[in-house]
Amino acid sequence: NYSGNISVSEIAGYVGLSKYYFCRLFKEITGNTIVAYVNIIKCAKAKKLLQTGKYSVSEAALLCGFDNLSYFSRTYKKHIGCLPSASSNLQG
After folding, report:
1. How far apart are CA 40 and CA 66, in angstroms?
2. How far apart are CA 44 and CA 76, in angstroms?
3. 8 A C-beta contact, residue 67 and residue 29
4. Do residues 56 and 79 make contact, with C-beta atoms less than 8 angstroms apart?
5. How many CA atoms lie within 13 Å of 54's alpha carbon, on the beta-carbon side?
């Protein structure tokens, strides 16, 4: 459910842990915060969408749960290593 707006508290409640313990445990296991981990997943999905050539950068961002294009671009560059517009030019 990565494309929706789900809070860390909701996730922690779903697995039956306190928010703070869940965050600490999650980072210990994955090496990432929950927000960073979700963003990595969102960016990877956006990259796949962009590489098909069927979606614009803004369409891919919205489909992957980013409602702010500037934040999407910064986050995408941080996790993928290039701007989303560069990925849309690399089909396949």
Report:
1. 12
2. 8
3. no
4. no
5. 6
The 10s digit of each residue's pLDDT in 65-88 is 999 999 999 999 999 999 999 987
Cα separation, 90 vs 87, in Å, equals: 5
Say which amino acid occupies 13: G
Q: How far apart are the first and last CA of the chain?
A: 25
- pLDDT score of 92: 47
pLDDT at 90: 60
Q: List own/partner pairs for 17-26 with CB under 8 A and 24 or more apart.
A: none
Higher pLDDT, 35 or 89: 35
DSSP structure string for 13-69: HHHT--HHHHHHHHHHHHSS-HHHHHHHHHHHHHHHHHHHTSS-HHHHHHHTT---H
pTM: 0.84
